[in-house]
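> Could you send the Endoribonuclease YbeY prediction when you get a chance?

Sure thing. Input:
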Amino acid sequence: MTIYIEKETEDTLNFDYEEIINKVVIQSLQSENFKHDIEVNVILTNNEEIQCLNKQYRGKDAPTDVLSFPIIDDSEIGDIKTLDEHIPVHFNMETKELLLGDMIISIEKLKEQAQEYGHSEERELAFLVAHSMLHLFGYDHIEPEEEEIMKSKQNEILDKVGYSR
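Output:
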């Protein structure tokens, strides 16, 4: 498994963010009984950069906390459980890993939301990574029933890594 973490901002996090990201990614894979080795990219940025991406890709001219860019579009496969059919197309031949996708997290938003919700920045980072991983697996929260599934799965992941509410 390869988790690339890039920090593209001067904003700082005063804790071991790489350890939290790794733990949550691994637990997300375990919670989904995901058997493939994966490659995922995590980019830590600021509000200005994430706002540009949010506008470009979602048509929303505002900063957001996290953006997820699955390599395998859920409209392409319908459900991550049918992934085996698509591995040859989305497979890094050098590393023998499935290219899962990219997540982009605004450190500024992470800090704002941690304060707003009254929990630690560590917990907020864990939540954003779990949330994004579920999007990379093909989950969404547009419909109320989808949102309940995502909340349940997020809570399970966060409980298992020690960042429950």
